């Protein structure tokens, strides 16, 4: 009888500890994700600070892919704000390391493929003439794969539209085709429901901004 009671107490204790740890994780993640919903935090230095916090969360929660995903997101977004191209590859490398960790936990993930596509795109700006074809194709292929995994992900269409928007017409870009992608993205955003409050949900306002530039 004593053994049974001890086992029950042990199980209850473990369950309580697990719930407390889960609540702590959710709280820490919610705070950081909320920062990414605030456009004032989109500066190179601020994004790197947030990335560091996500990395610390990931180090403590090794079975969770989202901390590594968001760390990668922060690093790659900071590359597009850098005035010094010499810093881009290093930041892209840090983004790639985190995304590899996220993918090891959650393979065949459309959201992860979106960030991998952005990482490839970020490397183009260092040397567009020599890198454009290689990384442009890599970025496009990753979005195709993401779409095959989940055709309802609005960020896939947004990023495809972004590529068409910023690529010169002589290299395959098209504002007309970009507009179509942005319109599909907004349709998908209207019905998109994140899996949780900390799941990826970014991009709608940015899509509207790019579409407004075309109109």
Q: Name the shape in a single word.
A: globular
Distance between the termini: 75 Å
Return the structural class: mainly alpha
Q: Unreliable segments (pLDDT under 50, ≥5 consecutive)?
A: 5-20
Keywords: Signal
Protein name: Tetratricopeptide repeat protein
Signal peptide: 1-20
Notes on the structure:
With 215 residues, the protein is an all-alpha fold. Helices cover 75% and strands 0% of the residues. The relative contact order is 0.08.
In short:
The chain has helices at residues 2-36, 44-60, 66-79, 88-105, 110-124, 128-149, 154-166, 175-191, 204-214. With 215 residues, the protein is mostly helical. The chain is globular, with a radius of gyration of 20 Å.
